[in-house]
């Protein structure tokens, strides 16, 4: 049987090539993801371990948090820290807001996922590793982080602009460095540029101060002992952190993030594998049916059911092994750019590919198991057919199996409908959870009912053209084998449904942001620092001086409390409410902002606050009492904490104008905009927006979801083309005699090609219709749960829907080319003799 299996595999290689490609794609995605996860996980093990103690401002207690305006450590404290027994060396660090401008005049971003842009001071430690040029030695010189330099096309000797809280200055790039932090987050964010220490203190914070200090331990001194000794000498607002614990936390965080990323990518891979398994099962089912006489003959001469089953599984395993080997090579090609991208975004990660035994064995198991399991049911069907029956011809699906699928599908559809209806009853759990469960249940139900639904859709689609011969023949051919059609349609439908669902959710989230901005912002313009820095007094004065500007209200932010108990505070001039900003108040009036604070509804519900309550706040180390004078709903720019007046901020906030200014004006004409752009011309880090532009910028966070949806749709199209080609090719092979008969009674080759093309387009259309319909339901229910918006408020991206339909049509035409050409070239006499 093993020898027969190998010979059959070689004999059927032309018919199995699409199955081979499907397995290659699935294994490539799986192995590429595993190689990527193992590689970035290995990079995490390169986190610095030379720092014994990190002294840093920690408003949240023991947690290290980045703060652009932290508690400062006097430079005079460093000699005291260096004198502590067990300290081998100290390195004072200065962090603060700063940005560097690229050759295109735009602010460039360094490695890291944080939005905040920071600068630092140069130090001869492993924290900054020079890769090109030299270190900055005085005013007017900077070194630039490696990724930022690449993004901005900056090299040693380039003249550019450095931006910071004190203003903007022309500088020369003298070096390029690689950043290696002592911890992943907090002060470990990659700084875009580095000054010499004196300059950094002057432009980032205050002269003769540091924001954190790295201490190295003498030989034989434990990090815990040194941490305790250092902690006893620190002023309030600074905390000594155990360097070994920070390194371990960073390593665990990196590995956790790598695992999460791998799980997300593997979830898409799982979809591809499930769809591919359907295609493989469909292929083997058709091949088994085609080889019925062969199996009947083997059974007649003594082969057992088990041997017939093993024969088919040997063929499947052979395809799995070969396809897995090729798929892993493709996976390496997929992993390399992902590793490079991740290394460019996270300062801790390396960019070296690691091919581990775990990843190789897992990929091998995926490729072989998916292929063998997909072929197992067809193999059992082949072995279960009696020899006499098999000798009479093709194996036909027992109608009872379709009846069972239909009954299960109808039952799940009923349950899914019930849960979806429950989801309509409210915008909070458990209703939203019920809606999501119902939507995914409906997806499974549609897969089970694909044969019946396809028949209904085909009748509707073909109704206008059924009077014509070729379309009528195409519809009948497609529905001749319902299970085969259902399998092909299901494979396409699942990919399209997931892509559409993600797109609907992203579009709904974007629409929600746009609605909130339009409802809240009445000002014609607003300016915001894209790196989180404070808008300077000079910049604010220039904005107010522009002809036509009637007011400019800064929006300032602070945090009350510490750790998990903390919540945001936002401050604005009370006069801005009603003129520049609109608030939707559940209780109270805007005038209450002048005498107290307005609380967001969610925060008030969480803290059990009511209008009239007086609450105690811990703000910058001080206890402050404030009265709740009103409750407001979601509002753009104002956050979901407490809204206070600018007078309150002047008394209790740290100095600064915040990172956003709303601008009132007589009109919003082009002259006013030109004047505002001129006022901000020397600050590329401060961007001017209309409310619509700001909403679009905020919605950019969902662009990744649109890209994921597009990728999934592309994957669905690839699988659709493979599945349809596979189905039609084997269908044409089964209908050799029928095609010959049609040719004998006068059908031209062109008509044969047209008939097969119509069949392909019908299959693609049915898959597209079902996929988009179910995808809209999925997206509507998910946005209902995540965004707490009514199901009916779901935004449907019509461009994607229309594009998906068009793509399905193109996929149908492309998929039909080879089978149609093969059918059209059928020799009439040979076909009639085969029949």
Structural notes for this entry:
- This protein is an alpha+beta fold and 835 residues long.
- Strands 14, 15, 16, 17, 18, 19, 20, 21, 22 and 23 form a ten-stranded mixed sheet that branches. It has a six-stranded mixed barrel with strand order 4-5-10-7-9-8.
- A hairpin with a 2-residue loop joins strand 8 (159-164) and strand 9 (167-179).
- The two termini are 29 Å apart.
- The model has no long low-confidence stretch (mean pLDDT 82).
The description of the largest β-sheet is: 10 strands, mixed
Distance between the termini: 29 Å
Strand content: 15-25%
Secondary structure class reads alpha+beta
Number of strands: 23
What characteristic shape results from the CA principal axes?
globular
Mean pLDDT over the full residue set: 82
Uncertain stretches of 5 or more adjacent residues = none
State the helical fraction: 55-70%
Radius of gyration: 33 Å
What count of helical segments does DSSP give? 26
């Amino acid at each position: 049987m093993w020898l027969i299996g190998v010979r059959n595999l070689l004999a059927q290689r032309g018919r199995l090539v699409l199955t081979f490609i499907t397995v290659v794609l699935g294994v490539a995605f799986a192995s590429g993801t595993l190689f990527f996860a193992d590689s970035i996980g290995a990079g995490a093990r390169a986190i610095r371990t030379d720092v014994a103690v990190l002294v840093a401002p920690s408003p949240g207690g023991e947690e290290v948090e980045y703060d652009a305006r932290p508690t400062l450590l006097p430079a005079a404290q460093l000699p005291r820290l260096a004198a502590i027994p067990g300290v081998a060396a100290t390195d004072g660090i200065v962090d603060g807001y700063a940005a560097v401008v690229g050759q295109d005049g735009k602010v460039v971003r360094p490695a890291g996922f944080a939005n905040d842009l920071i600068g630092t001071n140069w130090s001869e430690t492993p924290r900054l590793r020079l890769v090109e040029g030299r270190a900055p030695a005085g005013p007017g010189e900077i070194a630039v982080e490696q990724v930022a330099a690449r993004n901005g096309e900056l090299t040693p000797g380039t003249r550019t602009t450095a931006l910071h809280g004190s203003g903007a200055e022309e500088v020369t790039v003298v070096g390029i460095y690689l950043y290696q932090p002592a911890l992943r987050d907090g002060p470990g964010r990659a700084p875009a540029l580095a000054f010499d220490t004196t300059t950094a203190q002057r432009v980032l914070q205050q002269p003769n101060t540091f924001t954190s200090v790295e201490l190295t331990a003498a030989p034989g001194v434990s990090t815990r002992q040194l941490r305790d000794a250092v902690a006893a000498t620190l002023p309030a607002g600074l905390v000594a952190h155990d360097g070994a614990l920070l390194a371990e936390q960073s390593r665990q965080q990196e590995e956790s993030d790598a695992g999460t990323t791998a799980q997300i990518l593997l979830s898409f891979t799982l979809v591809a594998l499930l769809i591919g398994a359907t295609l493989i099962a469909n292929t083997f089912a058709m091949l088994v049916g085609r080889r019925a006489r062969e199996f009947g003959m083997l059974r007649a001469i003594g082969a057992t059911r088990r041997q017939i089953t093993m024969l088919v599984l040997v063929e499947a395993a052979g395809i799995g092994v070969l396809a897995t080997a090729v798929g892993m090579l493709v996976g390496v090609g997929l992993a390399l750019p992902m590793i490079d991208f991740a290394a460019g975004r996270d300062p801790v990660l390396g960019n070296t590919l690691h091919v581990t035994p775990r990843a190789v064995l897992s990929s091998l198991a995926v490729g072989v198991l998916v292929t063998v399991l997909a072929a197992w049911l067809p193999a059992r069907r082949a072995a279960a057919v009696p020899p006499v029956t098999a000798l009479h011809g093709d194996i036909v699906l027992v109608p009872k199996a379709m009846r069972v699928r239909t009954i299960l599908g109808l039952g799940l559809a009923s349950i899914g409908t019930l849960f979806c209806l429950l989801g309509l009853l409210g915008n909070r759990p458990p209703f939203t959870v019920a809606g999501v469960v119902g939507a995914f249940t409906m997806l499974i139900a549609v897969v089970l009912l694909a044969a019946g639904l396809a028949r209904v859709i085909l009748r509707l689609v073909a109704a206008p053209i059924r009077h014509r011969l070729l379309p009528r023949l195409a519809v009948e051919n497609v529905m001749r084998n319902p299970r085969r059609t259902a399998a092909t349609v299901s494979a396409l439908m699942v990919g399209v449904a997931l892509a559409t669902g993600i797109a609907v959710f992203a579009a709904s989230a974007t629409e929600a942001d746009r609605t909130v901005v339009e409802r809240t912002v009445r000002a014609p313009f607003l300016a915001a620092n894209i790196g989180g820095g404070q808008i300077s007094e000079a910049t604010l004065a220039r904005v107010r001086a522009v002809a036509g500007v009637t007011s400019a209200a800064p929006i300032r932010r602070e945090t009350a409390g510490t750790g998990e108990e903390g919540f945001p505070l936002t401050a604005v001039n009370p006069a801005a409410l009603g003129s520049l900003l609109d608030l939707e108040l559940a209780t109270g009036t805007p005038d209450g902002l002048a005498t107290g604070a307005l609380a967001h509804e969610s925060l008030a519900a969480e803290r059990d606050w009511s209008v009239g309550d007086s609450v105690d706040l811990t703000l910058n180390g001080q206890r402050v009492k404030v009265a709740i004078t009103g409750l407001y709903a979601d509002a753009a720019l104002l956050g979901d904490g407490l809204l206070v007046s600018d007078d309150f901020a002047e008394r209790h906030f740290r100095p600064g104008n915040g990172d956003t200014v709303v601008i009132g004006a007589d009109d919003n004409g082009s002259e006013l905009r030109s004047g505002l752009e001129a006022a901000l011309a020397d600050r590329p880090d401060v961007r001017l927006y209309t409310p619509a532009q700001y909403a679009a910028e905020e919605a950019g966070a969902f662009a990744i979801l649109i890209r994921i949806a597009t990728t999934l749709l592309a994957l669905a199209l690839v699988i659709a083309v493979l599945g349809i080609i596979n189905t039609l090719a084997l269908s044409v092979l089964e209908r050799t005699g029928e095609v010959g008969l049609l040719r004998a009674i006068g059908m031209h080759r062109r008509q044969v090609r047209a008939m097969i093309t119509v069949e392909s387009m019908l299959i693609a259309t049915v898959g597209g219709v079902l996929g988009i319909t179910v995808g809209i339901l999925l997206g509507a229910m998910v946005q209902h749960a995540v965004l707490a918006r009514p199901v009916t408020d779901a935004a449907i991206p019509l461009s994607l829907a229309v594009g998906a339909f068009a793509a399905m049509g193109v996929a149908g035409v492309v998929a039909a080319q080879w089978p149609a050409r093969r059918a059209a070239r059928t020799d009439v006499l040979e076909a009639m003799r085969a029949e």
